[in-house]
Amino acid sequence: MVRLSNGNLIIQTVDFFTPVVDDPYQFGQIAAANSLSDIYAMGGEPLFALNIVGFPINELPKNILTKILQGGADKADEAGIPIVGGHSVDDREPKYGLVVTGEIDQENIWKNSGANIGDVLVLTKPLGTGVIATAIKQGKASSDSIDAAIESMAKLNKDSANALRGYNVSAVTDVTGFGLLGHLKEMCENSDVSSEINFHDLGFLHSVNELAMSGIIPGGTKRNLNYVRECVSFDDQLDETQKLLTADAQTSGGLLISLPMDDARSFIKKMNGSPIIIGQITDRQRYLIRVQ
């Protein structure tokens, strides 16, 4: 976040990654939605973007690159912004993402700190994209699970952010590579609070539980769980697979929001019930997070 000489605040964020799905157009959409997410998670409005591209120009057909860029352009258009340029390099493995510039009102900045004791935690997208992306690479994902994951990952957090404005929002973060527990850990540390999560209230994408039980777990998800183990207390009835699912590394995940119960219920109603309450904020305890 940068303050300009006239007092206005702008936000800049950048993200890019290798393909998580086989279809190049859908990959472009997902990468663009993921790149835009940080702007929405802070309560900002995106203004414009730049492409970042790595592509093996002499090894893959150029129409694949065209489709990737078209997916990104269409998603930027959905966000209401132009892509005004960018930079590309000849790379052995395709990579795509955006540098996004946005603006924000200083009085309405959402931070990943400030969560209050008694707040509830709301999550706006289901979990499990990491597991499904790994299943896609292994050729073990069903068409239904692939479709569900693509729909979730390509969905902008724009509508959730717009609907959230006007409520007494305490803290917000988007759930991405560090998984639900990793991002919640950061929110709790920054707010000097603890939290309780109800595992059976968590929403997962189609077939995620079955895929995880069959051993399809991303390496990033395993690293995430190891990273948070010392500050998380799991109920004895939860098995290792269920613990891993709470730490699944997400691509273009939803918003994790801390706010009062009445505001949460009103927000969920405004969003037609798609966000869900997954837990609550408590006073600081030995463990930052308890998963029941």
Structure in words:
This protein is an alpha+beta fold and about 290 residues long. It folds into 2 domains: about 1-110, 60s Ribosomal Protein L30, Chain: A; about 120-290, Phosphoribosyl-aminoimidazole Synthetase, Chain A, domain 2, CATH 3.90.650.10. The chain is about 40% helix and about 25% strand. It has helices at about 25-40, 60-80, 130-135, 145-155, 160-165, 180-190, 210-215, 220-230, 240-245, 260-270; strands at about 1-5, 10-15, 45-55, 85-90, 95-105, 120-125, 170-175, 195, 230-235, 255-260, 275-280, 290. The chain has a 7-stranded mixed β-sheet. It has a 5-stranded mixed β-sheet with strand order 1-2-5-3-4, with helices on one face. β3, α2 (about 60-80) and β4 (about 85-90) form a beta-alpha-beta unit. α3 (about 130-135) crosses α4.
